Amino acid sequence: MSRIIKICGLRTIDRALAAATAGADLIGLVFAPSRRRVTVAEAQAIAAAVRTLPPPRPLIVGLFVNEPAHVIAEIARTVGLEAIQLSGDEPADFSIPIELPLIKAIRMTGDPTEEAWLARIAATKPATGNRLPTMTALVDAHIAGVYGGTGQQADWQRAAHLARRVPTLLAGGLTPANVAQAIAVVNPLGVDVSSGVERDGQKDPELMAAFVRAVRMSDAVAECGAERCCTE
Ligand SMILES: O=C(O)c1ccccc1NCC(=O)[C@H](O)[C@H](O)COP(=O)(O)O
């Protein structure tokens, strides 16, 4: 099994290409207030550069917080986004007038809106022939007043429960050093990282490559059932 790897918060063409070279499946561009925020023009340039890569290349995910649906759709068309992540307090009947896979951040706060989102995700038929499901939950850490990219770990035990219920990307404080353990505990469809592959506030090519290597190694271990088989 090859888990989906999302590297979030790319801000420049060279680091986005480095994420692709490392082997990311999804590249996240942040359109919300954040030190990682990109303008639409910057996002267009990054997306255009990534689209020149031969397949398999990463899909471009646009990340929004409490943005009106028509604004999201407009940015998605302008940039050529290939998936949308909602990381705010959007209601569970939120509908965007463009057909793209949707990732919804869930912080396991116990909020009824989150439960309603999970029910919607669980009820959505997975699309065929596309590695990213039509709807996916992204389990993240809960830090009051912050919508993501905190570097704080999510509750892995609760995330494991959730991952059995809906397609789940595990996020929150993952690093090259802890991602294999996180996968072993949670068994998610994929993993997401931002702070854990940064050095001095920038995405670091070596850390991104180390993160992907750690995930692919744990994929290989899962495939053969024992680490011994992969290291001999
Ligand atoms: O990354 C941001 O700066 C950000 C800002 C506002 C809303 C969401 C944001 N990121 C969402 C992500 O998908 C991050 O990758 C996720 O929260 C994990 O971040 P980290 O714990 O830093 O790895």
Order of helices and strands: EHEHEHEEHEHEHEEEHH
- How far apart the termini lie comes to 20 Å
Number of helices: 8
Largest sheet: 8 strands, parallel, barrel
Classification by helices and strands: alpha/beta
Strand content: 15-25%
Helix fraction by DSSP (H/I, runs of at least 4): 25-40%
The overall pLDDT, averaged over residues, is: 94
Number of strands: 10
CATH architecture assignment name: Alpha-Beta Barrel
Spatial strand sequence of the major β-sheet: 1-2-3-4-5-6-7-8
CATH level 3 topology: TIM Barrel
Rounded to an integer, what's the Rg over CA atoms?
Answer: 17 Å
- The unreliable regions are none
Write up what this structure looks like:
It is a single chain. The mean pLDDT is 94. The strands form two sheets. Strands 1-2-3-4-5-6-7-8 form an eight-stranded parallel β-barrel, surrounded by six helices. Strands 9-10 form a two-stranded antiparallel sheet. α1 packs across α2 (40-51) and α1 runs parallel beside α7 (205-224). The chain has 232 residues and is of the alpha/beta class. The chain has helices spanning 13-22, 40-51, 69-79, 112-123, 156-165, 179-186, 205-224, 227-231; strands at residues 4-8, 26-30, 59-64, 83-86, 102-106, 135-139, 168-170, 190-193, 198-199, 202-203. The chain contains eight helices and ten strands. It has one domain (4-231): TIM Barrel. α3 links the parallel β3 (59-64) and β4 (83-86). Helix content is 38%, strand content 18%. Bound molecules: ligand LARABZUK. Ligand LARABZUK binds at residues 8-9, 28, 30, 32, 34, 36, 63, 65, 87, 140, 147-151, 171-174, 192-196. The ligand O=C(O)c1ccccc1NCC(=O)[C@H](O)[C@H](O)COP(=O)(O)O binds next to β2 and β8. It comes from Chloroflexus aggregans (strain MD-66 / DSM 9485). Belongs to the TrpF family. Its EC number is 5.3.1.24.
